[in-house]
Amino acid sequence: MLQACLNGSRTAEEHPALPLTPERLAEDAADAAALGVTSVHLHPRDVIGAETLAGPEIATTIATVRAAVPGVEISVSTNVPGHRETLIASWGPLAAGRPDVASVHAGDPAWRELARALHRVNVAVELVVGAPADLRDLPGGISRVTVTATRATAEPLLRLVEPLGLPVLLHGADADAWPVLTYAARLEHHVRMGLQDTLVKPDGTPARNNAELVSLARRNQRARAPR
Description:
By secondary structure, the chain is an alpha/beta fold. The chain has helices at residues 22-34, 55-68, 84-89, 111-120, 154-161, 177-187, 210-223, and strands spanning 2-5, 39-42, 73-77, 101-105, 124-129, 142-148, 168-171, 191-193. It is globular and about 45 Å long.
């Protein structure tokens, strides 16, 4: 699987093509889907551009993106301030406005409670592991583990998560984004790419947009696929 990570916590000042509104996220998701992406990860924003888990903003963003890419998995982040369990509980009746998956960071002291809250509203969990963590007694509803790593930390983190028997998505950020993608593709793990993870192409020059990054990631992934 190649997932497109469209915006993350970045601001509009960081890149002119960063999608923040539901309409721009839908456009970038459609461009990524045309390149073969089957999952998009995004950070919904409120009217002032702040990340949010509030039901109305989640519903508007997810429904708008889903209309543009029916059949593509939509993942959101829960790594935002606020009473997250209460906000997640409000997603239950959202129907087409409810995400398919939400990421929960294993370094968050409340991650098990968040995972259970997501399970109660029928949203699968993407468990994010970026450092050694206690992964015993996993709650239900975890669909995969996303490992955030540098090239140096990737191997020990994989040794931690691979025994769980869940699909693994391995990615890096900024200077590590492309080296880790290459490594993950060689291991045949799921990968991701987009403006959340890096603003530049493998040669270090600025990327035009998410579509360019995804296209280059797809080419990299195919080049390292077993023949």
